[in-house]
Amino acid sequence: MDHDIVIRGGRIADGTGTEPVVGDLGIRDGRISAVGQVEGSAGEEIDAEGQLVTPGFVDIHTHLDAQIGWDPFLNPVSWHGVTTALMGNCGVTFAPCRPQDRELLAGMMETVEDIPKDAILGGLSWDWEDYGGYLDALDRLEPAINVAGMVGHCAVRFYVMGERAVEDQATEAEKDEMAQIVAKSIDRGAVGFSTNRYPAHVLPDGRSIPGTFADADELIRIAEAVAPRKALMQNVLDFTQYEFSAELLRNLARTTGSRVLFSFGCSPDPASGKAAASFVEGLCEGGLDITAITQPRGSGFVFGLQSLLPARGDTWRKLRKMGFARRLEAIRDADTCRKLVEEASAEGGSQLPIDKVFWMGAGESPDYTAPAAANLQAMADAAGEHWATTFLRLSRESDGKSLFTYRMFNESIEALADFFQSERALPCLGDAGAHVSQIMDAGWPSFVLSYWVRERGLYSIGEAIRRLSSAPARVLGLRDRGLLGVGMRADVNVLDPDAVVECQPEIVNDFPGGAPRFIQRARGYKATLVNGRVSVLDGEHTGARAGTVLRHGS
Fold first, then answer.
1. How many domains does the chain have?
2. Which residues of the chain have pLDDT under 50?
3. In sequence order, what are the residues at sequence separation of 6 or more whose Cβ sits closer than 8 angstroms to the Cβ of residue 199?
């Protein structure tokens, strides 16, 4: 056979930003062997007529570090065309780690990222101490998609300083030791270093995680170790200290001479997007390589009868203790509903600002872009009822499936439209693997294609695919993925750009110990290939586990 697989007659969007052209794609031995009019025989052919053929999508903000231990298919990102995922974000990682500190790191991940500690401790092998050993353990798991990892500041700091890591400043010798550990971690395959200065990210005892208040010099010392290795530095910052955070990003970029990544967003003001774009562009003056990422839509807690509940009171507390079937039965009882509304009406009865809560609709795909005036409080006012009555009524009408989202971040879709005009702002923050029972943004690639391309026309197809593939691949430091060209790794999507959409999130209990989490399927993907093998076909996993651990410098 000349090729293992030929994808025939699709519109090829190669990831460079150019617009699609009709052609074929040949694949052999895990790499792209031909592009254009592909001649010769193949072991398998995929008919892509009427479909778009793209590079696999690259997700550079996940917390799949734990989930990979028990879910080699890494759902739900793999349902949305993601073929490469970056783990180790936000400074929280499971290595380096001494055996006696495993429970501490697992507890830290639980409180920061809402990943159950018992699932972490029971679902991973924990047969490593350094970061290279952690990557070796991932190799043995044979994941279905490619994964890369960064070494986290919290683990490094605790490894060096012990309990002092939480609140004390490091000595000069400790800074040097941390830098050495980061250097060794990168030499063993970590693609970078991540740090976190957001005070609300806390340990189980309520104190901010290690590194939150570390001197900037500590990070510069680490950046000096990153510099000769040309690795990535990822940051979560406290933008209440705006000037400090901006200057820190610039100094890290100057010191490393390489790529710096940080999480950002827009304020509720629709006019804030232009200012946010200008801020990010300004950071890069002088040729600095700094990239901001954010959620491509309003994001925050997702709740409903099948998950979190929005109000306080004795009756609500009893409802929380029930399983889903009993909850649904309870809200069909008029007397129970009366008590629930009374408790929600009391002072302090609501746990959320209801004017920032939105119904996600009754359709197959969730409504993420309802205008601010269509919030749950406004819906209730229009119906002449209390918001809790509206919540309960919609829950009954949907047999308990209705979901609501509290927009904590990126409240204004118009601000995002301006922000995403910046070359330095990528719409690719999904947090997959984290906040598993609270938030579901893992379908971000499908939203970009369905909303920002198909509905709004913000990006052309070619530009959108570039921002989903080669642009994040460049930030990650990949040179052989993110583009469709001869010799590149065969991570490929075949999809219908007129049909791609996210389905409604749903709660499942498939974590170790039966812990709940949200998943979200997609529609419109015909096939996803990882390293030349079909991994997902018509929305279902084939069982192929062709992913690999991508190590820095390999």
1. 1
2. none
3. 208, 212, 238
